[in-house]
Amino acid sequence: MLIINSPASFTLQKLGKEFDLLRIADNQIINIELKNGNVSNEAIRTQLIQNRYYLSTLGKPVYYYTFISGQDRLVRLSNSGRLRSSYPTTMPSAYPKKKDSE
């Protein structure tokens, strides 16, 4: 099960583009779209590629995922634009690592 403690639904006002979960850190961005029910791989891929178009302008590495709750399935968009099965343990850390002195 994937649990994310973050507010849902972020909208880029000037574009009217909505993202379900968007974590913007100093060194990376993680985008997770949430789906419920039956959704085709092509629809998921199309949405993630559109997200890549908008978010790539921010100049940081971006990781694109979709979680399909009805199937308990997580997929990611590869650099080549293909969907790949993924697991929460393989996702990049959304939070910076703390130094030993902290």
Task: Describe the model.
- There is one protein chain.
- The protein has one helix spanning 41-55; strands spanning 10-12, 17-19, 21-24, 29-35, 62-68, 73-77, 83-86.
- With 102 residues, the protein is α+β, with helices and mostly antiparallel strands.
- A five-stranded mixed β-sheet has the order 3-4-5-6-7.
- Helix content is 15%, strand content 32%.
- The chain is built from one helix and seven strands; from the N terminus they run ββββαβββ.
- It has one domain (10-84).
- Mean pLDDT is 81; it is low at 1-7.
- It is globular and about 30 Å long.
SSE topology:
Elements (H helix, E strand, L loop, with lengths): L9 E3 L4 E3 L1 E4 L4 E7 L5 H15 L6 E7 L4 E5 L5 E4 L16
Parallel strand pairs: 4-5
Antiparallel strand pairs: 1-2, 3-4, 5-6, 6-7
Can you give me a brief rundown of this structure?
This protein has 102 residues and is an alpha+beta fold. 15% of the residues lie in helices and 32% in strands.
